[in-house]
Amino acid sequence: MATASNFPPQCAIATVSTVDGRFGAFYGNNSQEGCPQGNGSFVLRRSRTGWVEIDQVSGEFTVTCPSSVPTAVARDLGLCRIPPGGRLSRRVRFRSYVMGSYTRARYRPRRVLFGDRTGISGIRWSRWNRRFARGRGTLLYNNCKPNCAEARAQHYRVAITLSRVRDCNGFDRHAYHYTRFAFRYTGAKPSGLPRRYAERHTCRPGGSVGPP
């Protein structure tokens, strides 16, 4: 697919639409050493002789879908966002980022981890498979005073929001992921901590989290 756009195949993260297999897209693997840097996608259509490039799309992931492919295909390939209230055609999953790496992607996880093994458990999701997933759970917090082994963990109620859906098909067969994780304390909170917390994930299997 990448060779149709004169792009190094070893640097391309490609996916074929599950809505219409005649269309596909790829973007550059920016984490691969020696590969071209960029944040957009190449859009292609399958012909009798192979893949042919038909468009290049910005990586801004806007609500407006490119006119070069059917809207359902564009959303399926992650070329544009689902409109407010719209459902995604495939299941969306979420990966926790804890201790410097991502966990396995899960659908409606009952537990979410972050930081140094801090976790929110007993999660009940009221909304999923849309632009925003919302749920509530209990955060177990250890202030490590006088030390982590002797300190008694405290429980806090939190409201969770997952957003920023991205097509991570190049790195995970469960293509759609929520890549922004945020929560807020709905009652009491640990002393000295902000009432809200958020982090932004990437599609890559390794790497780190970024600012929200």
Task: Please summarize what this structure is.
The chain is an all-beta fold and 212 residues long.
Summarize the structure in words.
The chain is elongated and about 70 Å long. It folds into two domains: 2-76, no CATH class; 97-200, no CATH class. The strands form two sheets. It has an eight-stranded mixed beta sheet with strand order 6-5-7-8-9-10-11-12, with no helix packed on it. A four-stranded antiparallel beta sheet has the order 1-2-3-4, with no helix packed on it. It has 212 residues and is mainly beta. The two termini are 33 Å apart. A hairpin with an 8-residue loop joins strand 10 (154-167) and strand 11 (176-185). The mean pLDDT is 80. It has one helix spanning 71-76, and strands at residues 12-16, 23-28, 41-47, 50-57, 97-98, 101-102, 112-115, 118-127, 133-141, 154-167, 176-185, 196-200.
Total DSSP E strands: 12
Structural classification: mainly beta
Low-confidence stretches: none
Mean pLDDT: 80
Q: How would you name the oligomeric state of the polypeptide chains in this document?
A: single chain
State the order of secondary-structure elements, H for helix, E for strand.
EEEEHEEEEEEEE
What is the percent of helical residues?
under 10%
Figure out the total of helices.
Answer: 1
Radius of gyration: 20 Å
Our count of domains comes out at 2
Kindly report the spatial arrangement of strands forming the biggest sheet. Answer: 6-5-7-8-9-10-11-12
Distance between the termini: 33 Å
What does the overall shape look like? elongated
Q: Sheet with the most strands?
A: 8 strands, mixed
Strand content: 35-45%
